[in-house]
Design a protein that fits this description.
The structure holds two protein chains of two kinds.
Chain A lengths: L1 H11 L10 H33 L3 H13 L2 H14 L6 H26 L2 H9 L4 H31 L12 H10 L2 H28 L3 H6 L1
Helix pairs in contact in A: 1-9, 2-5, 2-7, 3-5, 4-5, 5-7, 6-7, 7-9, 8-9
Chain B lengths: L9 H6 L1 H35 L4 H13 L2 H12 L3 H25 L3 H9 L4 H35 L8 H10 L2 H29 L7
Classes of the chains: A mainly alpha, B mainly alpha.
Chain lengths: ~230, ~220
C-alpha cells in the first residue's frame, strides 16, 4: 500500500509536471521518438510490401521476416543502434534509440502489409484488370483499400512494440519515459520508477486501443456488410 | 567503439568462456521456467475457455493487456513488492507467454474437425477421453507453434531481465553499453539470437517426435 501511496504522491507533485524533466515533456519525447521511428519503418517497409504483395514475389521472405524479427531481442537492437550511431558520429540518446526501433518496427509492417495485399480476393483484382485498370490503379483503388485493416494491424503491432521499447532508450542516455524507470532503478526511488512504468504502460495501451479503433473504422463499408 | 579498438577482442572472449557459459545457463533457466509455468497456466485457462466459451473473451482481453504492457514497465511495477528478484522476472516473463499460448491452444482444439469428434463420441468416448485422446493430440501441431513463438519471444525478453539483476545474455549487453565495449555487446546480442534459433530448432525436432503423423508420407 505504501508503494501505491508514494506513487500517487509523486504523480500529484506539481514539481514533476514542470520543466524539461517533467512528465509532459517526457511523454512528448516518447511520442516523438516512437512516431518518427514508426514513420521511418513505414517509409522503408511499405513500398517493399506493396511491390511484393502486388506481384506475389518473394512470399517466403515476406512472411518469415516477422518471425526473424521476433527473435531479435530489443536490448540487442539497442546495442546495435548504439554501435551504428557512434560510428556515424551521431552521439548518444536519440539516434541510437531510433536505429534500434526502426528495425524492430519493419518486420510486422512488412509481413502484414504483404499478407493484406495477397489476401485480397483475386477475382476482384481480375475483374478490375478486365475493366482496364492499370496495375497502379489496381494497387491504389482495390488492393490497398481492401487490405487496409490488416495493414493497420501490422502497424499497430509495430507501434506498440516501438512504444514499449523506446523505454530502453534511457539506457543510452536518451530522454522519454524510460528516464523515470532507469533513474528510479538506479536511485532506488520506487515512486519515480512506478510512475514511469505506469505512464509507459498507459501509452502502450492507448496506442493499442487507438489503432484497434482505426482498424475497425477503415473496413470498407461493403466489406463490413459481408462480415 | 573506442577508436583503435577492434570490434571483437578475441583474448577477452577466450578469458571469459566460463562466465559466458554461466550467463547462457542463467538465460536458459529463466526461459524454461517462464515457458513451463506459462504453459501450465495457459493450459488451465484454455481448458476453462473451451468448456465455458463465455470466458474466452475476458481471458484474452486480460492477457492481451498484460502482453501490451512493456516488459521493463511491468518489472518496474513489481519491484516495490517483489524486489530485484527471480520472482519479479518470472512474473513478467510468464505474463507475456499467456496470450500467445492460450490463443494457440484454444485455436488448436477448436480446429479439430467435428467429424472426428463425432466419430470418437460414436465409439463411446466420454468428453474427457475425447479431450485427452482426440482433441489435444490433434491440436499438438498448433499448440507447438504457440510454444515456439512463446519461447523465442521469452528468450528475447530475458535479455531485459539483466536490468533487474537476473543475469543472462543481457548482462553482457549492459556491460557493453556501460563500458562502450563492443565485444561484450556482440556476445550478448548474438548469444541471445543464437539461443533463440537453437531453441526453436530443438522444439521443431521435439514436435516431429511427438506428432509423427504431421509429416508422414
Amino acid at each position: 500500500m505504501n508503494a501505491l501511496l508514494a506513487l500517487a504522491r509523486w504523480l500529484t507533485d506539481p514539481v514533476n509536471w514542470q520543466g524539461t524533466h517533467g512528465i509532459p515533456i517526457r511523454v512528448l519525447e516518447h511520442i516523438e521518438l516512437s512516431g518518427l521511428s514508426v514513420l521511418a519503418a513505414l517509409l522503408i517497409a511499405m513500398p517493399i510490401a506493396l511491390y511484393l504483395g502486388h506481384t506475389g514475389r518473394a512470399g517466403f521472405f515476406a512472411i518469415n521476416v516477422a518471425n526473424i524479427g521476433r527473435a531479435l531481442p530489443s536490448l540487442a537492437l539497442l546495442a546495435l543502434g548504439l554501435v551504428v550511431a557512434i560510428s556515424l558520429g551521431l552521439g548518444l540518446g536519440f539516434w541510437p534509440t531510433v536505429f534500434a526501433l526502426v528495425p524492430l518496427a519493419i518486420p510486422p509492417i512488412l509481413t502484414n502489409s504483404y499478407v493484406a495485399i495477397r489476401e485480397v480476393d483475386r477475382d476482384i483484382v481480375d475483374a478490375a484488370r478486365g475493366m482496364g485498370l492499370s496495375e497502379g490503379q489496381i494497387l491504389r483503388s482495390i488492393e490497398v483499400p481492401l487490405g487496409l485493416p490488416l495493414m493497420l494491424a501490422g502497424i499497430r503491432t509495430a507501434a506498440v512494440n516501438v512504444v514499449a521499447t523506446a523505454t530502453l532508450g534511457a539506457l543510452v542516455a536518451g530522454g522519454a519515459l524510460g528516464r523515470f524507470i532507469v533513474d528510479g532503478l538506479a536511485l532506488q526511488e520506487y515512486d519515480q520508477l512506478m510512475a514511469g512504468a505506469l505512464l509507459v504502460a498507459l501509452l502502450a495501451i492507448v496506442t493499442e486501443v487507438s489503432f484497434g479503433a482505426l482498424e475497425r473504422a477503415t473496413v470498407p463499408p461493403g466489406m463490413a456488410a459481408i462480415r | 567503439m573506442t577508436p583503435g579498438e577492434p570490434l571483437i577482442r578475441w583474448d577477452w572472449l577466450a578469458s571469459h568462456v566460463g562466465e559466458i557459459l554461466l550467463r547462457v545457463g542463467e538465460h536458459l533457466e529463466l526461459t524454461v521456467i517462464a515457458v513451463v509455468v506459462g504453459f501450465l497456466i495457459a493450459f488451465v485457462l484454455s481448458l476453462a475457455a473451451l468448456r465455458i466459451p463465455r470466458l474466452y473473451a475476458p481471458i484474452t482481453w486480460t492477457t492481451g493487456i498484460l502482453y501490451t504492457i512493456p516488459s521493463l514497465a511491468l518489472f518496474a511495477l513489481l519491484i516495490p513488492y517483489t524486489g530485484l528478484s527471480l520472482l519479479t522476472a518470472e512474473i513478467g516473463l510468464v505474463s507475456y507467454t499467456l496470450l500467445i499460448l492460450i490463443r494457440n491452444i484454444v485455436a488448436g482444439v477448436r480446429g479439430v474437425p467435428a467429424e472426428v469428434r463425432d466419430a470418437a463420441r460414436g465409439m463411446g468416448y466420454t468428453d474427457r477421453q475425447i479431450l485427452w485422446r482426440v482433441e489435444i493430440p490433434l491440436a499438438l501441431a498448433v499448440i507447438f507453434a504457440g510454444v515456439r513463438v512463446a519461447t523465442i519471444t521469452t528468450i528475447g525478453l530475458v535479455t531485459v531481465t539483466a536490468l533487474i539483476g537476473q543475469g543472462g545474455m543481457g548482462y553482457f549487453i549492459l556491460l557493453g553499453i556501460q563500458l562502450f565495449f563492443s565485444t561484450a555487446l556482440i556476445v550478448g546480442a548474438l548469444g541471445s539470437v543464437v539461443l533463440a534459433v537453437l531453441a526453436d530448432g530443438a522444439l521443431v525436432l521435439a514436435q516431429r517426435r511427438l506428432t509423427p503423423w504431421t509429416h508422414a508420407g
